[in-house]
Design a protein that fits this description.
With about 120 residues, this protein is an alpha+beta fold. It has one domain. Helix content is about 25%, strand content about 25%. The protein has helices spanning about 15-30, 75-85, and strands at about 1-5, 10-15, 35-40, 50-55, 60-65, 90, 115. Strand 3 and strand 4 (about 50-55) form a beta hairpin. Helix 1 crosses helix 2 (about 75-85). The chain starts with a strand and ends with a strand.
């Protein structure tokens, strides 16, 4: 389980594999100087709602991985995430595509997501 920290105000848990894919897409957008929304469905433990944040290049982001191995990157999943990031709604966590490069169709794209104030 990895952590995505946003401007010292918010810390969100994603599994390491999901977080690695999000990092790639967010990095691609920010390298181009693009600002955009990023939203996800919250876990039941934090209210089962949705959270959306505005990502802008100067806002500090931290990606904390708890596993020691780099996750396998699925280019199709990166493309699927990037497609959502290029919409008016912004980046949304979508399931990893099934198939040879993707995970099994039963494997969720996002592990339970919890958020709370960063320490």
């Amino acid at each position: 389980m990895g952590k995505f920290a946003y401007d010292k105000a918010l810390s969100v848990d994603f599994d390491d594999r999901t977080l690695a894919h999000l990092q790639i897409v967010i990095g691609m957008k920010q390298r181009r100087g693009e600002s955009f929304y990023f939203s996800w469905k919250d876990d039941h433990a934090v209210g089962d709602g949705r959270t959306a944040i505005w990502l802008h290049p100067p806002i500090p982001l931290v990606y904390k991985y708890y596993g020691s191995r780099l996750p396998r990157i699925d280019p199709e999943w990166v493309r699927a995430l990037e497609m959502t990031a290029n919409t008016n709604i912004g980046l949304q966590v979508v399931d990893e595509p099934a198939g040879p490069a993707g995970g099994a169709s039963s494997a969720p794209g996002a592990a339970p997501v919890t958020n709370g104030a960063a320490s």
